[in-house]
Amino acid sequence: MTIRHLKIFIAVAEYGSMNTAAKKLFLSQPTISQAIRELEEYYDTRLFDRLSKRLYITPAGKDLLSSSYQVVNQFDKMDQHMQKNRRKDIVRFASTITVGSCLASHILNDFAVAMPETTSYTFIANTHMVEEKLLKSEVDIALVEGEIHHPDLIMVPVIRDFLVLGCSKDHPFADRDEVHVKELNNQDFVMREQGSGTRALFDRFIKRHNLNIHIAWEATCPDAIRNAILYNNCLAVVSVRLLEREIRSGQVRIFNPHTNELERYFSLVYHKDKIFTPSMDALRNIVHHYQQPDWLGSIRVGTLSEQP
CA angle, 251 as apex, 181 and 308 as ends, to 5°? Predict the structure, then answer.
């Protein structure tokens, strides 16, 4: 029994004639007769009495007719909704918190200009949560700061980024041109949460240099990290992009390691079985236009060195 059977049954019941129903539905009369016969066999009951070449709907037929109107009406609404949505291109984009704070709005503004007919949805969380969304097909494509290791996800580095040591202009380090790594011992730090790509990279740095820092703050919110630096005299190791406004205004001083151990890439990530739509291709092309910040050349940047 199918929707087609029910639509034929409704037409026969309304017109009281298989011949008339066939003409209205642009079907042959034998096709109409077969559909009614299949329904009666399926429900093991007569739906029409055939008296003197006329059809009279039975009580069982009336019960089926009432339900058929509801089922066909719901099906038609569903069909219209799906046909309408089929013509809409929707891209579901995810990013990690640093990317979301620094780049996502600019990227999506460019995307809206390039693809004005496409609707977008954006999800922002840490690397671990974004990975889960990709694996469950709840987002289509993501731009992340951390490393993805799941074998079903493809990771393509696209935007160079690096972490810097940041402190407020009132911190004892602020007037110096060089800070030694060992001087970070016992200093108060504001840190990203576990599961963050930024946190993972800095944790490896801490382990490599055998540091013993004091985690005074732990936060997922970029504004909380900035405030801990500005008002609570904490140090932080975060993306240089995250502190752009404070660096350019002189509120925050930064120190760049003389090695590349805090360098990384923001990477596009998608499922290996994902079929790229035109909107996903457009988003991928736009992301490639965002590279190293061009404002750093005018900033006084200190050095984070290994040797005292």
Answer: 15
Q: Whole-angstrom Cα distance, residue 270 to residue 148? A: 10
Beta bridge partners of 165: 237, 255
Tokens 């998608």 locate to 270
Residue with token string 């590279």: 291
Architecture of the structural domain at 91-305: 3-Layer(aba) Sandwich (3.40)
Q: Model pTM?
A: 0.67
**pLDDT tens across 9-58, in order?**
899 999 988 999 888 899 999 999 999 999 999 999 999 988 877 888 99
All residues at 6 or more sequence positions from 7 whose CB lies less than 8 Å from its CB, including other chains: 25, 72
Measured between alpha carbons, how far is 135 from 121 in angstroms, rounded to an integer?
17
Choosing among 1.10.10.10, 3.40.50.300, 1.10.150.240, 1.20.200.10, the CATH entry for 3-86 is 1.10.10.10
Which of 276, 268, 270, 267 has its CA nearest to residue 137? Answer: 270
User: If you ran DSSP here, which 8-state letter would residue 283 be given?
Assistant: H
**Half-sphere exposure of residue 245: CA atoms within 13 angstroms, side-chain side:** 8
Show Cβ contacts of residue 98 under 8 Å, excluding neighbours closer than 6 positions. Answer: 145, 161, 197, 198, 222, 238, 239, 241, 242
- What separation in angstroms does the CA of 57 have from each of 18, 28, 75, 184, 239? 12, 21, 24, 88, 75
